[in-house]
Amino acid sequence: MSSDESGTGKPPQKGWKKRRLQGACDACRRKKIKCDSRNMPGNQCSNCRAFNSPCTHDEPAKKRGPKSNYVTRLEKRVLKLEEILKQFQPDVTIPDFDEPASSTGTSNNVENSTKDSPLSDNLDGGAATDDSDTDPDMEYIEVMDQMKKMSLHMMDNRYFGPSSNLAFMRKAFSMKSEQTGQEVNVKKEHWKNWQTHPWEQATVEMSRNTFYFPPPDLLADLVELYFTQFHPYMPIMHEPTFRHSVVSGQHHLDPRFGAVVLLVCAVASRASDDPRVFLEGMSEHSSGWRWFVQTREMPRALFDMPSLYDLQFCSLSAEFLLATSSPQSAWTMIGLGIRYGVEMGLHRQRPEKPNYETELSKRAFWGLYVLDRHLCLYHGRPPAIRDEDFDLEFPIICDDEYWTINEGGCEFIQPSGVHSRMDYFIMHLRLCQIMSFAVRTLYSIRKAKQAEGLVGASWPKNIVSQLDSMLNGWIFQMPEHSS
């Protein structure tokens, strides 16, 4: 019997939910144990008194609540499932939200009609819907935060999953703190092997390459061509910000951004009839090559933290290479970009409110995903990352011109009645998920099929039937203005 029950002498009523004691001290809050400081003399809890440690209440309480966009995603998911259910089972009665699920058999019907679809858990880009306070999928954020506290520059903002040695170390520190009642103090000299040495720093400090950009008039034309002919299909950048950066001359100061600008020119040259985009004396097949080849001299820092420019660099390089005589060379560049994204933790959902940087990162990662899925299917190769290995949400459906960027963050408000061009990109992502399912089932090797339980003579027919159902669902989800 708990102390709460013994104090009142009453059994817990039905529906009674145990609540965490408010005002827990810093040590008990970190160890997630019960704290009685509010009822003890001097507000010193029995745990701190037993370990003879200070009982402080200085750390601000962590804000708890639903993950960003959780309720919106859940409502959209329910509406989509209801529409699909009505299409295939018109006779089913769907209860109101305030009606208990057990009052009808609808919940079982919904479960049975959607459980076989590999996209049923990914209607909003693979975002998890578990809203518990201790979501194991979110532990990687605590690992990254702990690396920052230890001043490990080379580890800052890098992703480490639950099987990593750093995650194991965090667990060990937490267990030691629980036993001793004291925070683990790691001496800085223990981390000397993880600090960047001078000879390694040379690979991080990128030299200022001398890039040769198109003349101003041609540069403006190529940027315009890129955002009208290519950006709508692969929206990996924010057009107003990119244009402003080019006008302000940032590409002359930042080599990483300069390389991105060169690749934009190279890709846009495929749609240009200006003779200046061709190599002198060469055919139209050489369009854009004079700018693409300069980026090959761009050093790729082995010890430096990847940036958003690196993801855009890989995506644009792959787009250009796809139009060459060796399109399969883009496959390697796409894999590098996805590896960069995983190292930055971009493949995982984040609980904080979306901002300019995170939204562009989502676009860049999903753009690489699209390229990867197309090349995997066309070349018969395995993907760089499996669908079940990331839970990143889809990009926000808001066109570039409606982003409001200010000191307080970024607001994404698509005007009512204005159809977003991002709808097409989202539908493309959903189609790529279906392509991924086809590659994983129909075109996988025998060992993979056996692991998935695809055995017997009937499985090909079942998979084809499921693909047909998924494609019908994809068409049903298509916005009216895009059909």
TrEMBL record:
SUPFAM superfamilies to which the protein is assigned, alphabetical: Zn2/Cys6 DNA-binding domain
Transmembrane segments: none
Database matches in SMART domains: Fungal_trans, GAL4
Gene Ontology biological process terms, A to Z: DNA-templated transcription
Record-linked InterPro entries: AtrR-like, XnlR_reg_dom, Zn2-C6_fun-type_DNA-bd_sf, Zn2Cys6_DnaBD
One matching Pfam family: Fungal_trans
Organism, as annotated: Armillaria tabescens
Name assigned to this protein: Fungal-specific transcription factor domain-containing protein
Region (Disordered): 1-21, 46-69, 93-137
Keyword RNA-binding found: no
Residue stretches making up the Zn(2)-C6 fungal-type domain: 24-57
Polar residues bias: start-end ranges: 46-55, 101-120
Single GO MF descriptor: zinc ion binding
PROSITE patterns cross-referenced by the UniProt entry: ZN2_CY6_FUNGAL_1, ZN2_CY6_FUNGAL_2
Protein keywords: Metal-binding, Nucleus
